[in-house]
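quick one, 479 residues, struct below
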Amino acid sequence: MNRLSLASLSAVPAFVQRPKRGPAGDVGIVHFGPGAFHRAHQAAYIDDVLAHDPRWGIAAVSMRTRGTIDALAEQDGLYTLAIRDAGSSMRVIGAHRRFLGPEDAAETRALLADPAVALVSTTVTEKGYCLAADGTLDMAHPDIVHDLAGTMVPRSVVGWLVAGLAARRTAGIAPFVPMPCDNLASNGAKLHAALVAFAGRTDAPLADWIAGEVRVPSTMVDSITPASDAALYADVAATLGIEDRAAVQRESFKQWVIEDIGRPLGPDLASVGATVTTDVGGYEKAKLRILNGAHSTLAYAGVLRGSTSVAEAMRDPQLATFVDAMIARDIIPMLPPVHGLDIQDYRAAVLQRFRNPVIVHRLDQIAQDGSQKLPYRLGDTLIANRRAGRMPQHAVAAFGAWTAFLIRRSRNGQPIVDPAGDRLAILASEGSPADIVTRLAGEGLGIPREVLEDAALILALGRAATDAHDENWTSLFAG
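---
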């Protein structure tokens, strides 16, 4: 079977959307971390931009391995994006122009210094920014230590960005816009501070220039993107009649919220559906509490009730009704208005996404790292309600489900996948569910410590944990 490429593109069936402009052309964007999410999300937006503005081709830079960029290069940068929903579809993306690996440092440096490059975006995971627990640059991180030593081939994205900005300043060229696209709250502010801190260790004038001249927009990105697998490759081959080893897949819903920094980003992303706003934080909070809070609730209650995926949990009428009621009664009333976001439409979209029968989003994966996630996904809702004089029964029940989940895992000898997993297992290994709630809150693991100062709330949490442990669902879900 032929491989997807410029030469074979004409053989792609007419019902499959093709890029309106081939991969040959200008590079206006450098992207670090061309993994599946970038190719399924940001690159699809850029592909739409390229249909009317050819300046913004992407140079894909992989700092560690060559697998992805080699697969792209072998296909002239073309790959299939499969949309996985009840009405599935496919399109061929052609947004990438250059493919650079760890050995191509000189070419990467040249691109970062090129005045035609206006935007440098990143999807390197939260860990890839080398930040400490307080959100500042971790100067002791091995990659940062390496890069500060003056190497010509940085290991960190912060090192690369500072190197590129330094070259622009030396040449008297306006800085590019660094844009982080990982799920890290206030990611733009944190990356900007990291760039200034890094430069300040070796070049104080450069640090001052970055502080004053470089704008780093915060962003929020969202679209469920399952890993590519053999089933996807087979489906693409059957549909296109051509082999594609760089294919990616995601749900149809996509969201890209970008902070308005008061100057152009380069490509007009708003023209192709991105939201440019002064309130990225409001969108982040809505996503964190509605989507992520409901996800975690489905995970813990769903596992206890025998479900294995989000879609399966949403086919449980009692659980689906409960989660919807939690969003409507406990979460939304505590969210401030966000300009441009219809919160009820967003609620409906989230629940519809959860019901997607094609995306298999495993509950045991969502259930991981609860001690780190729950304070933000559900704890803030809990505390906000109590400060408003309300008892958020549904959020309380969600914490009860998490406590019962820990008890079941601990007492069945199953591992708890969490940075504090060993400690959680010990805390949940004996005693009543109510006692375990108090222990968790006492150590600030998942349940905020200030709960201990609220006698009515700690009592309600204990009752919810008992109901979940005893599988007394009618009482737990009564709300």
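The radius of gyration is 24 Å.
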